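Many introductory courses stop at the sequence. We go one step further.
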Amino acid sequence: MYQKIRDLREDNDLKQRELAEYLNCSQRVYSNYELGQRDIPTDILIKLSNYYNVSVDYLLGLTNNPKRNK
């Protein structure tokens, strides 16, 4: 999961700081999410899912299909 959120961020040419601002957390906290040093709260997973337009299941590694179910 942690590698996926990093890959999505890098694929979208975003900086950790930019995502941290969107998520209303510090860059350090966001960095800890990417490194797996801090569990990602459910509300943050949902925000990331909405931001990247991918399913939470994709972020969690439960599927390789990023598409959301309607």
